[in-house]
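Q: Convert this sequence to structure tokens.
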Amino acid sequence: SLTGCASSGANDIQLMNESDHETYVLTGLVGGIKSDDRIRVTGKKLKGASNSRQFLVEKVAKDFGVCKVQPATP
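A:
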């Protein structure tokens, strides 16, 4: 499973995983996922074209709500 904040890419939804700090392009059951939501999804990691990281979403396990914005450091 992956947990992190979802964001909109050019033509896709992406998730920055909190545990490995990698960004994954989400595929599969992504209809209910909104940009700027912190979520946990279950499924399978896939290897995409040009070594991009993809994750096949089988289920949105938990929706934590809106992501907390990190304050900018001076």
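The radius of gyration is 12 Å.
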